[in-house]
C-alpha cells in the first residue's frame, strides 16, 4: 500500500474503481473496524512517547553551549521526527477514526503534502548524517569544513523534500461516491491510466526509500571497510607509531561513539520501515491482495514504521551522556 495513503482511502479507491466499472456491484463503505481502533490507540500512545522524547532532545541540543558540527544534524533529525509526530501520527489516527474526510479539499491537499514532506525530510536527513560520517571516517582532515558542508547538504535535503512532496498538492482531491453520503480524500481521477499512478508510486517509493537506503548502505559499507583496513594496519604498526596515535585517541573514541550512534539510528530506520514499504510495493502490483490480506497486517507494519520516530531519542540518549544529565536536571 502506498506510504501516502491510509487503508480506508486505498480501499475506497479500489471500491470506486470496481463500482464504476461494474455498476451492478453493490457499494461497500469502509468502516471503523476493531483493528483500526487498536491502530488509533497505539498511534496516540506513540504520539505521546515521540512528542515527549523528541522535545526533550530538542531542548538538550539547543541548550548546548559547545558547538559541534554533529549538533545541527541531530537538530534536523529531531525536527523531522517532530514533524512526523505532530503531522503524520495525528492525521493517521483521526483519519482512521472518521474513516471518511470531513476537512475540505484544501486540507486534503495540504495535509497529504505535509505528511509526505515529513517522511521525505526524515529519510533525507538520515542520508546527510550518513554522508557526514562517511566523510569524517574516510577523510578525517576535512573536519574543518564539516559544519559548512553539513549546512549545505541539509539545505538541499529540506528543499528536495518540499519539491518531491509537492505533487501531493495536485493529485489529492475530494471524491464523493455517487448516490452515497461518503466523501474521501483520494488520488482517484488524477491519473488517466492506471500505469501512470503506478509510475508515480514507484517514483515515490524509489526516492523515499530505495535511494536513501542505497546511499546509507554504501556509506556505512565503505566506513566499515575502512575501519577494518585500519585495524589490520594497526597490528602491523610498531610501538612508536602506536604512541603517536595515542595523542589523538580521545578524538578517535568520540568519533567512533558518534559513528555507532548514527549506525544504530539508520539501522532502526531500515528495520522499522522496510516491512511496510515492501507490503506497499506488493499492493501496487497486486492491488486486489489488500482485500485478501488480514487487516491487522497493514496496521501492524505501519505502526512498526512509526516506532522509528520513538526510537531515535532513545538511541541519542544512550550515546549522549549530556542528554541524560539534562534530563536529570529537569
UniProtKB/TrEMBL annotation:
Q: Enumerate the PROSITE patterns for this protein.
A: G_PROTEIN_RECEP_F1_1, G_PROTEIN_RECEP_F1_2
Q: Name one GO biological process term.
A: cellular response to hormone stimulus
Where does the protein principally reside?
Answer: membrane
Report the Gene3D superfamilies cross-referenced here: Rhodopsin 7-helix transmembrane proteins
Among Pfam families, the record links this protein to: 7tm_1
- Please name the PANTHER family in this protein's record: GONADOTROPIN RELEASING HORMONE RECEPTOR (PTHR24241:SF183), NEUROPEPTIDE RECEPTOR-RELATED G-PROTEIN COUPLED RECEPTOR (PTHR24241)
Q: Name the protein family.
A: Belongs to the G-protein coupled receptor 1 family.
The protein in question is named Type II GnRH receptor
Organism this protein belongs to? Latimeria chalumnae
Q: What is this protein's gene name?
A: LOC102363373
